[in-house]
């Protein structure tokens, strides 16, 4: 399977990029770096892709397990190399689950399945970065 994305320069440091679903997003940089600060930054977008990929897996698995949660959030951090080309050498993904009487065993299983088996973006990141994960339960 092949995905095709078209990214079109909109002037200055701004680009508009499409997605195989037909949705678009803006890519830009800070005003200090010559942009309009109007869009997502490319490296940070990679962290969003990682969280989104794993999050979709986790929610799908939890739904199949009939596990109720009231909220779910992922905090994703990337540490860049000092030298150019700068890339993430270490990435941390914190999974935060909120709810009443959370089923921690099933939640852990869902997260582990995403991390170890299903999330292709996670696997891509492992090719160039150390990936750390943690799960945090917030019972009401």
Automatic annotation (TrEMBL):
InterPro entries associated with the record: KH_dom-like_a/b, OsmC/Ohr_fam, OsmC/Ohrsf
SUPFAM superfamilies membership: OsmC-like
PANTHER family: PROTEIN YHFA
Record's protein name: Putative redox protein
Species this protein is from: Gelidibacter algens
């Amino acid at each position: 399977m092949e995905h095709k994305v078209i990214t079109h320069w909109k002037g200055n440091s701004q680009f508009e990029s499409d997605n195989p679903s037909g949705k678009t997003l803006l890519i830009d940089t800070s005003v200090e770096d010559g942009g309009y600060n109007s869009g997502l930054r490319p490296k940070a977008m990679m962290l969003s892709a990682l969280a989104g990929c794993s999050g979709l897996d986790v929610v799908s698995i939890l739904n199949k397990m009939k596990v109720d949660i009231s909220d779910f959030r992922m905090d994703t951090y990337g540490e860049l190399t000092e030298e150019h080309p700068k890339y993430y050498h270490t990435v941390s993904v914190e999974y935060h689950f909120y709810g009443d009487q959370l089923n921690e065993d099933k939640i852990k299983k869902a997260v582990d399945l995403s991390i170890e088996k299903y999330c292709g973006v996670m696997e891509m990141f492992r090719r160039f970065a150390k990936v750390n994960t943690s799960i945090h339960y917030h019972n009401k």
